[in-house]
């Protein structure tokens, strides 16, 4: 691939003139603008507040290099290979077909991409300019990538007007509005926009499609490895408020007696937090930081908003073994003890089933450990499949079912191509190889997901081309089959009157359709997910939603007309059902037996997080609980660190121990022991 920079060029936006540069990649000429401001720098008094539109600038603003990343925890590989972090991070990047002498010859469809990273990390600055131009611009699509505030800076919340939260989501809202108002100057069609993302970015895209601030502002969505159906998509307000309050106390804010802080207390705390240096305070963060019910961006529970939101064509999917990327280093051994630990966690959260009953259901769905232990990696595959189902596969299945019932065309995939060259050294730590969380974007965006030193082979390059053919065709036309390559198999749409989730498109070098891809697993798992992961919200969600519907026929529309909004009660995107009965002994033999071994070849897994929704004090009192509550971590060192237990994750000692484990694994496996790669001692 050749990239040749040519003469600079200028485009006039509503805030001023920006200067980009022209590149030639193979036979494609593209115009690139990097680091275009879409908001005022969120500094000083603007910290922890909604973003403000940028001021007009005089003269010409050079936009020729990526800006600094949003503040996040950075590890040694990231510090070596990537640009530095800054609180001044609200910028976007535009990749567009060549603009002919300031004349727009035609309008191109636009893809608005939101990066993943668990709302805590990552940046679009990782993506190579030349490869993005080849993947998108050569196929007549304009690509826009954005940065938004992460971690505490993006999702800190006091639960009241002092800091309602969701600053990172409002960053995305403002960026989307900027693109809609200015993309025509770059040759884009604001009426042909697709919003998409991966993992946390996929959740964001789905939430943007139903929020009163952005619903109806784009035409299609792509949810890769996540969606608003994931149980980890939206955080309960009380969880995030408690977490943020404890963080402030750790930083030196005096602890107040009692559980409740007044609005004046929270205002004073936020004023104090705005005086602290951002880099040393806010680079850390784990779940439960993320989108929260604030009565504004999310004025009602997700299910309520979804039911009243616009219908649009969607592309949704997961990796074949989504949870695989979170299994290395011995922290998740993928053995019977890990399975028992997950069952204990499910039982702890359940008011309806005890540990014995959940064990029986899990055994009926996935098979028993003794039989699986007879195969070399049977237990590992069982654990990965179960974790993946709970984390994301079930959410993907619900997504497909929901929109199929609403007669909305949906294209569903399972990404199944894998390569040891993509994993690199990280692959040495996996119990087996397979497509995992983020595998599809490694090919869709054609970038080095795991910082592998091995490069790509011809099959990887072919897979990147195939993935872009299907995905970009969907962005351009709403149909992934309009790629102009008759040799590629058709990707069927899941439409009205069809059995949902029976048309999963297996994306590999030889793509094919898998019928009944998830077997009966999801229908059985649905009972556990509903009664365990969301059981604490079922009753209150049902009552509040029912009462809200009586009091206000359309609170979403009313929310759109208000300028000042107050937070509304929390509820979740769960299905309303009768309140669960107390735990009791019952016969579960009515659940049909599903053979894990028979169904293993068609397993479909999902994004990174887990059902560990216990209270912080429970986590401390039970050291056997595994902190699986993680989202997507799109860089190898971040994955390694965040697999540590929560109370150990911030320890440099443990991080270096982890890296020594990588080095030992390399020696033991013997595959890359000659590579001259150094790790901290």
Automatic annotation (TrEMBL):
Biased composition (Basic and acidic residues): 548-563, 612-622
Disordered as annotated region, ranges: 540-626
Domain of life according to the entry: Eukaryota
KW ATP-binding (keyword) present: no
A Pfam cross-reference name: COesterase
InterPro entries in the cross-refs: AB_hydrolase_fold, CarbesteraseB, Carboxylesterase_B_AS, Carboxylesterase_B_CS
Molecular function in Gene Ontology: carboxylic ester hydrolase activity
EC number of this enzyme: 3.1.1.-
Gene3D superfamilies: alpha/beta hydrolase
Residue span(s) of domain Carboxylesterase type B: 10-504
Keywords per UniProt: Hydrolase, Serine esterase
Start-end of Polar residues biased regions: 564-592
PANTHER family: CARBOXYLIC ESTER HYDROLASE (PTHR44590:SF4), CARBOXYLIC ESTER HYDROLASE-RELATED (PTHR44590)
Sequence similarity: Belongs to the type-B carboxylesterase/lipase family.
Protein name: Carboxylic ester hydrolase
Protein source organism: Mesorhabditis spiculigera
Lineage: Eukaryota, Metazoa, Ecdysozoa, Nematoda, Chromadorea
């Amino acid at each position: 691939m050749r990239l040749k920079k040519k003469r600079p060029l200028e485009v006039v936006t509503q805030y001023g003139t920006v200067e980009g540069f022209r590149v030639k990649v193979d036979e494609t000429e593209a115009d690139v603008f990097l680091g275009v401001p879409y908001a005022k720098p969120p500094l000083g008094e603007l910290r922890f507040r909604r973003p403000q539109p940028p001021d007009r600038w005089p003269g010409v603003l050079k936009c020729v290099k990526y800006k600094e990343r949003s503040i996040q925890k950075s590890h040694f590989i990231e510090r070596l290979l990537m640009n530095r972090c800054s609180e001044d991070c609200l910028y976007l990047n535009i990749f567009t077909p060549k603009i002919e002498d300031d004349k727009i010859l035609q309008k191109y469809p636009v893809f608005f991409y939101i990066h993943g990273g668990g709302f805590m990390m990552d940046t679009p600055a990782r993506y190579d300019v030349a490869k993005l131009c080849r993947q998108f611009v050569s196929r007549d699509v304009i690509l826009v990538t954005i940065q938004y505030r992460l971690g505490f800076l993006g999702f800190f919340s006091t639960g009241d007007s002092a800091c309602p939260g969701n600053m990172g989501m409002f960053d995305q809202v403002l960026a989307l509005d900027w693109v809609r108002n200015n993309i025509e100057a770059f040759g884009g069609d604001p009426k042909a926009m697709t919003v998409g993302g991966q993992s946390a970015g996929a959740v964001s895209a789905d939430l943007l499609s139903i929020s009163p601030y952005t619903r109806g502002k784009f035409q299609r969505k792509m949810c890769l490895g996540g969606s608003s159906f994931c149980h980890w998509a939206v955080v309960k307000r009380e969880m995030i408020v408690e977490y943020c309050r404890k963080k402030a106390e750790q930083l030196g804010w005096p602890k107040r007696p009692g559980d409740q802080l007044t609005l004046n207390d929270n205002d004073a705390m936020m004023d104090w937090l705005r005086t602290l240096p951002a880099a040393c305070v806010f680079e850390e963060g784990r779940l439960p930081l993320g989108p929260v019910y604030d009565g504004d961006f999310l004025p009602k529970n997700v299910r309520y908003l979804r039911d009243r939101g616009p219908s649009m064509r969607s592309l949704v999917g997961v990796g074949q073994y989504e949870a695989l990327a979170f299994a290395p280093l011995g922290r998740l051994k993928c053995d019977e003890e890990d399975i028992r630990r997950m069952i204990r966690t499910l039982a702890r959260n359940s008011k309806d089933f005890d540990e014995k009953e959940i064990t029986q259901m899990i055994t009926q769905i996935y098979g028993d450990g003794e039989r699986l232990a007879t195969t070399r990696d049977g237990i590992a595959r069982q654990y990965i499949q179960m974790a993946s189902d709970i984390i994301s596969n079930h959410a993907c299945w619900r997504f497909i079912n929901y929109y199929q019932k609403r007669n909305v065309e949906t294209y569903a995939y399972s990404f199944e191509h894998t390569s040891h060259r993509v994993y690199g050294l990280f692959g040495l730590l996996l119990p087996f190889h397979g497509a995992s969380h983020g595998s599809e974007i490694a090919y869709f965006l054609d970038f080095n997901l795991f910082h592998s030193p091995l490069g790509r082979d011809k099959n990887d390059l072919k897979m990147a081309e195939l993935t872009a053919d299907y995905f970009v065709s969907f962005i351009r036309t709403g149909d992934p089959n309009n790629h102009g390559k008759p040799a590629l198999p058709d990707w069927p749409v899941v439409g009205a009157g069809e059995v949902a989730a029976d048309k999963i498109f297996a994306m590999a070098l030889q793509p094919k359709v898998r019928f009944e891809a998830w077997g009966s697993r999801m229908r059985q798992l649905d009972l556990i997910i509903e009664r365990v992961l969301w059981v604490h919200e079922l009753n209150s969600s049902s009552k509040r939603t029912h009462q809200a519907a009586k009091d206000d026929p359309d609170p979403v529309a009313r929310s759109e007309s208000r300028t000042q909004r107050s937070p509304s009660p929390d509820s979740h995107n769960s299905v309303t059902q009768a309140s669960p009965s107390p735990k009791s002994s019952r016969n579960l033999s009515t659940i049909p037996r599903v053979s894990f071994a028979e169904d293993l070849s068609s397993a479909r897994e999902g994004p990174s997080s887990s059902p560990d929704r216990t209270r912080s004090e429970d986590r401390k009192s039970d050291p056997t609980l595994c902190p699986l509550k993680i989202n997507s971590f799109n860089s190898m060192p971040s994955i390694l660190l965040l697999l540590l237990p929560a109370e150990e994750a911030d320890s440099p000692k443990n991080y270096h121990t982890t890296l020594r484990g990588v080095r030992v694994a390399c020696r033991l496996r013997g595959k890359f022991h000659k590579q001259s790669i150094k790790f901290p001692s």
